[in-house]
Structure formats: C-alpha cells, structure tokens
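User: Heme-binding-like protein. Structure?
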Amino acid sequence: MATFFISSYLTALTCLVFFKILAAEQSSSFSFKSFGKDPKFESNIALYGDAHVVYDGSWIQLTDSVSWSAGAVMYKKPIKLVEGKVRNFASFSTYFSFSVSPENGDGLAFIMVPSSFKVDVSGNSSIGVSIGLNKSKSGIAAVEFDTFKDAKHGDLSENHVGSLASVKTRNLSSLNLVLNDGGKLHCWIDYEATSNRLEIRLSQSSSSRPDDPLLSYSINLSKLWNDEVFVGLSSSNGNSSQTCFIHSWSFKLRQVPNWMHSQPLDPVIAKNPKPLTAVPKSSKCFWKVFVFVFGGACGALMASCVMYLWNVLGDRRPVVPEECGMNPVDFDYKKVKVVVVEAAVKDGKN
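Assistant: Predicted structure:
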C-alpha cells in the first residue's frame, strides 16, 4: 500500500513538472506561416506604425511605398530569458522569411527590447523604432538587413547584414545574395547562451539552411536584460519608397537544465585550446572516498536486512487458504499466432 502511494505521488509530481515545462515552452515559442489566417494572430501579434496585413491575410507589409514610412510587428507576450538567482540565460532560435523592394531604404531588422520599452516607430530610425540618443542604455539588441550605406554607422555597403551598432557586418554581394531584389529570403538566427554565440544564416530557399553561418560573433546578451523581453521585426525606408514584407515568422526558446550544462563550447577557444594545468592532490580526497564507500556499504547492508525480514515474515503467512486450494486443471494446447503491425508515419515539412 505504501509502495503504491509513493509511486502514485511520484507519477503525479512528474506529470506536474512536465506540464509546467511544456506550458512555459509554449508561451515562449510561436510559429506563424500565414499571419492573418492564423486564429492566434490577433491575440499574439501587435502591429505598429504603417504595418498591416496584405494578400488575404497571408503577409505583413511593414512599410508603404512613400518616403519616411516605418512599421513593426511584435509578439505581444513577454519572453523570459533569465531565470533564477544565478541568472541562467536561455538560448533561442528564430526563423523568418521576408522580401524587400529594389529601392535603397533601411531594410529590415530583428529586434529584442526590454519589457519596459515603449515601442515608437520612426521613419528616421535605421531599424524602424526610436531608440533614443544613448544606445548603450537602451537595452536593444538588433540584427539588421540593411540596403542603405550609412557612413556614420560604419556600413560596408548598401547590401549587408550586421548588428545595431555594426559591431560586425558582412557584405552579401560576394555571396550572390541581394537583399532588395524583391525576391523572398529566409533567415535563421541562433543564440547559444552557454558560449554567448550569435549566428546568422541567410538563404534563398527554406529547405537549404546553410551549414556555415553568414555571420557569427560573441555577445553576452545576459548583460542587457534583467527580466523579460519582447521580440519583433521592424523596418523603415528613409527617404525612399522601399517596401518590406514578412511572409512567415517563428521563435523558439531553448532552456537547458543546469545538470546538462558542461563547459561552454566556444569555437574560438576550440581552435586555440589552453594547455592543461596539473591539479594539486588534496589529502581530503582519501576521506571523501572513504565516507562515500562506507555510506554506500551501510545503505546496502540496511537494504539487505529489510529484504531478509520481509522474506522471513512473508513465508509465515499462507498465501492461499487450504479450503480455497486449487485443483490441477488440464489445458488444451492451441497454436497462437502473433501478428505485429508496424505503422509508418510520414512527417511532412513545408
């Protein structure tokens, strides 16, 4: 009876923890393949500025074909990237497909802002939202797909991918990728919290995610935020008539338990490994091993005593009363055929 109670309690506790983790992942992850046609669109997505749904609800147009137009699409629910007193930072991945018309505007940007940030779109901003005068205190992280060469931001060309302050940029012309030719492009952005590594990939096809990132650099995002953040996509066209469209967008938070963490795997460290240093032996090691072995032996001895008493006392009780004894019964032999049916499940991807 006691064993059954403990088993039921552990099962219920496991289910509770599982569903709690599942609910947390669902609230921090989303996927929109067709925006306006999705039943969760209005409750989960907010549109700012000139952003509006087009093409029967399938796409989102961020900017109009007039100068100084700006728009943004934000996920309404805040995402918790930092957990616990030890500030465990979660990893994340986002994917979106977009297209930009041939004019030279400010293109598109993926942004992450603190939950206290007031979204204010502006056609004068290079990422479509007003960030104020002091970027270092704004707490904004952005990856921009720029089609305008701005010398004050250190832009390499009018066709590049970079961060908000152009910490690191990549010219796309040498890769035969053009941001503003009107064609659909697919982007993958991944952040690994264990190595503080941000990787950006870009392709003309959704089925061919590049193995090597287009841009990869080290950045500690945990220093930017103390709590929750909002994620979004924004655009501004400056003094042009450039239009920007979002075709699909997904975001997934990846939280790894502490017991699964190993040392951070940083590609830079992996290429230049540090020499191993000898660890001095401690006299306390012997006593630690002794206590561990002695404790294990005591536990095994106690378990053996309990099992022995259980068997001795159990043998004294009749399992079946004599008056209820069973007479031998002859069974006919019949051949039983076991049939195993295997079901094949095909998983189709768009």
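The longest helix spans residues 284-315. Helices lie at 2-27, 41-44, 267-271, 284-315.
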